[in-house]
Amino acid sequence: MKTQVCIIGGGPSGLMLSQLLHLKGIDTVVLERQSREYVLSRIRAGVLEHGFAELMREAECGERMDREGEIHDGFFIAHDGKLDRVDLHKYSGGSSVVVYGQTELTRDLYEARDRMKGIVIHNAEDVQPHDLKSDTPYVTYRDGDEIVRIDCDFVIGADGFHGVSRKSIPKDVLKEYEKVYPFGWLGVLSRTKPASPELVYAKHERGFALCSLRSQILSRYYIQVPLTDSVEDWSDAAFWEELKRRLPKEIADQLVTGDSIEKSIAPLRSFVAEPMRYGNLFLAGDSAHIVPPTGARGLNSAASDIYYLYHAMLGHYQQGDSSGLDNYSAKALARVWKAQRFSWWMTTMLHTFPASSEYDQKLQEIDLAYLFSSEAAQRSLAENYVGLPF
Ligand code: APR
Ligand code: PHB
Predict the structure, then answer these.
(1) Helices 298-319 & 12-23, crossing angle to 10 degrees?
(2) What is the distance in A from the centroid of ligand 2 to the CA of 257?
(3) Residues 112-141: pLDDT tens digits?
(4) Of the ranges 42-46, 67-71, 93-97, 366-370, which one carries the lowest mean pLDDT score?
């Protein structure tokens, strides 16, 4: 097979780039290790920043998001017996976020790829990029007993944190920065009315909790748990009881419990790999960086990578200008690190750290007290939460 851009990974990053490029007449093939059913069964976060929502529209995939997604102009932070609201709209100069499940967004992207007859190959085993430093890179994968080769101009590594792309960059070229947090999030999805129409991030001495939602009939809740816990340790009843204890009374009183549709534990990690380009391989999204979910930045850090890559590819193919590709890594990393800082800050401010001193705890309290006493601080939070420009 031959294509212009071979994209490894059929998650939101890979599909979005494939769709955008195809609309401009640039040929792509997407190689996904899993089946489509498997990809669409993964429950992921549900807050989209303005910039990502715009990309969805540009990719001609925004119709259902605009119909079913909810615009949120603010969210709450519960702390120290108070329930404070962050007014995103007011403090970000009129911007907001869209509450729309990432799983649904991925479904929309797949449907768009199908409509355009885009090539997405599922169950691609042993995907391997080759000759990345040459002008004639190629990617191989296994289909049963057969090894298939795809020749291309560029390889995009959009295969998530556990993918093969980042691992193809020699160790002496790649620098990895990592911070692992000493806890995870236990998440529950339930077909119940959300406890609050807007998200509630709750700091509590027993641990952090989050009330989120997918719609007004589908709720998503999280509680901070030790890394040693497993899903089997948490019955639905135990989860609801613990969540309730960590929420302020006015929210807890509104909590509607029900059977969990999905329950899982995710560890929290901050991670960046530099550079994001090696020869003709370009990393995008989770393959190059991970944030803890506290600031809702996961997909949104991927958004700017895709935007920069998309425009860099257009420059290359339409104007013969490769400066966008040459600048990609530095430009993408500059925004990635800002999302890292914000996610780390939100995580540090709102969680209970097992080894924290009384001094650390005081600083957490003061961080929040300062935030809600200062318009400048709320402006800073809001501009990061709705998404820094790209
Ligand atoms: N070969 C082919 N595909 C692979 C391989 C491989 N060796 N390894 C992983 N993949 C696939 C995964 O199955 C997955 O579908 O790559 C895809 C990567 O998708 P994501 O992990 O969703 O990463 P990305 O598309 O960058 O999405 C950005 O935003 O909210 C965050 O972490 C969340 O996934 C989300 C991310
Ligand atoms: C979610 O709805 O899953 C969600 C929302 C906000 C976050 C993290 C996760 O910060």
Answers:
(1) 30
(2) 19
(3) 999 999 999 999 999 999 999 999 999 999
(4) 42-46
Q: Is residue 275 reached through a cis peptide bond, with omega within 30 degrees of 0 on the bond before it?
A: yes
Q: What pLDDT, in 10s, does the model give residues 28-39?
A: 999 999 999 999
What global pTM score does this model have?
0.97
Say how far residue 302 (Cα) sits from the centre of its chain: 7
- Tell me whether domains 5-72+98-178+269-350 and 182-268+352-386 share a fold: no
Residue-wise pLDDT for 328-339, tens only, equals 999 999 999 999
Could you please report the per-residue DSSP string of 14-61?
Answer: HHHHHHHHHHTT--EEEE-SS-HHHHTT-----EEEHHHHHHHHHTT-
Q: Are 131 and 149 in contact (CB under 8 A)?
A: no
Cβ 212 under 6 angstroms from ligand 2: yes
What pLDDT score does 43 carry? 87
Ligand 1 atom with minimal separation from the 299 CA: 29
Geometric angle at alpha carbon 145, from 162 and 169, rounded to 5°? 30
Classify domain 5-72+98-178+269-350 at the CATH topology level: FAD/NAD(P)-binding domain (3.50.50)
Residues 6 or more apart whose Cβ sits within 8 Å of residue 66: 57
β partners of residue 190: 219, 260
State whether the beta carbon of 47 lies less than 6 angstroms from ligand 2: yes
**376 has pLDDT over 90:** yes
Could you report the per-residue pLDDT of 274-290, keeping only the tens digit for each? 999 999 999 999 999 99
Ligand nearest to the CA of 157: 1
Report which bound ligand comes closest to the CA of 385: 2
- Among candidate residues 168, 167, 171, the one with its CA nearest the CA of residue 133: 168
The full set of domain ranges for the chain reads 5-72+98-178+269-350, 182-268+352-386
What is the pLDDT averaged over residues 229-238?
Answer: 98
Mention the CATH class of domain 182-268+352-386. alpha beta
Report which of 251, 231, 22 is spatially closest to residue 119, judged by C-alpha positions.
22
Q: Which of 199, 211, 214 to mutate to test the pocket of ligand 2 (most atoms within 8 A of CB)?
A: 199
